[in-house]
Design brief:
Strand order of the largest sheet: 3-2-1-8-7-6-5-4
Shape: elongated
CATH class of the largest domain: Alpha Beta
CATH topology of the largest domain: TIM Barrel
Number of domains: 2
CATH architecture of the largest domain: Alpha-Beta Barrel
Distance between the termini: 57 Å
Helix content: 25-40%
CATH superfamily of the largest domain: Aldolase class I
Structural class: alpha/beta
Radius of gyration: 29 Å
Number of strands: 10
Number of helices: 14
């Protein structure tokens, strides 16, 4: 991913359905995602009749922001056409930001896969959807596998479906996720993200539904290569996801923090850094005379001290110096030299 985008961590602004059914709002959020520093603006593609049955109840978080009696009625008001998504993709290209959208049903998946986007997102609700997984795998495109509500065994089984169809594990980024809006920080379980990467041999990422930017930034410090976070123009707007989203200013602060974390991670090799070179000479110490030492005196612990700066003999040579004979006089605080 670094070669693709020139960044260590891909940041996705999840607009999702925060457009509230308005193309104008969708385009404005694409602009906001760009100015916030995101690499992608992402949406959700679905046909409400194919995604939810007529009597599918609302989730608790959906009830909190909607008076619709069923998921299908709620989703219908948030649905865009295929032509809308093609227009948004072109619009994002003009703005200068990547475009992604998540398919949530078989019909929509065919359309999204035909768009040949940089990543195909498998949403948390489809981790156990075998036909959907097979269809995604057969497309041969890099996959973001979201794992909300899943056990490790379910994630492993989903990955097996994807790789058995020819995808390399390196093409599947496993995204830790907690499917609640907003999600409690204590249920983020970021260490599960790290463990999945180690056990499955895949890149890891984090789809964040917690309040604020802190958990997402922490995920980057733990090795997340993809961060997905909801973006809204106003967290108080009606709709299922706004309350778990960041407004543009806070989203930008999150991206800036992520970029600082990226460079601060370094390369894992412990070494002298360029900014430390001059400081090392001043802050480190040398073996010096604690008192007047005359030529011919034997160096001992009573006559020597360790003091700054570090221009002279290293204190690591202490035992080699002890017992040797001074080849000249040394004044107090003067660095010791051996003949």
């Amino acid at each position: 991913m670094k070669d693709m985008l020139g960044v260590r961590t891909v940041v996705i602004a999840e607009i999702g359905v925060n457009h509230n059914g308005s193309m104008g709002q969708a385009k404005e959020l694409i602009h906001q995602a760009y100015f916030a520093g995101a690499n992608y603006a992402k949406f959700q593609t679905f046909r409400s009749e194919s995604l939810a049955s007529s009597d599918a109840p609302l989730a608790k978080y959906q009830k909190a922001s909607s008076d619709h009696g069923s998921q299908r009625k709620l989703l219908k008001e948030l649905e865009f056409t295929n032509a809308d998504f093609l227009e948004l993709k072109e619009y994002a290209s003009g703005v200068g930001i990547g475009f992604l959208t998540t398919a949530h049903d078989q019909e929509s998946s065919a359309f999204v896969l035909e768009m040949k986007l940089d990543f195909v997102k498998v949403p948390s609700g489809d981790v156990t959807n075998l036909p959907f997984l097979e269809r995604v795998a057969q497309a041969g495109q890099p996959v973001l596998l979201s794992t909300g509500m899943s056990s490790f065994d379910e994630v492993q089984a989903a990955l097996s479906v994807l790789t058995s169809a020819g995808l390399s594990p390196h093409d599947v980024t496993v995204m830790q996720c907690t499917t609640e809006y907003p999600a409690p920080a204590e249920e983020a379980n970021l260490l599960a993200m790290v463990a999945m990467g180690d056990k499955l041999g895949v890149p890891i990422g984090y789809s964040d539904h917690t309040l604020g930017p802190i958990t997402a930034v922490a995920a980057v410090a733990l090795g997340a290569r993809v961060i997905e976070k909801h973006l809204t123009s106003d967290v108080n707007l009606p709709g299922p996801d706004h309350s778990a989203s960041l407004e543009p200013g806070e989203f930008r602060e999150m991206v800036e923090a992520i970029r600082v974390v990226e460079v601060s991670l370094g390369d894992s090799v412990k070494k002298l850094q360029p900014s430390e070179v001059e400081n090392r000479k001043i802050v480190r110490k040398s073996i010096v005379a604690k008192k007047l030492i005359s030529q011919g005196d034997q160096f001992d612990a009573e006559s020597l001290a360790v003091m700054r700066p570090g221009f002279g003999l290293s204190p690591m040579l202490w035992h080699e110096v002890i017992g040797q004979v001074a080849h000249r006089d040394f004044q107090p605080d003067e660095p010791i030299e051996l003949s």
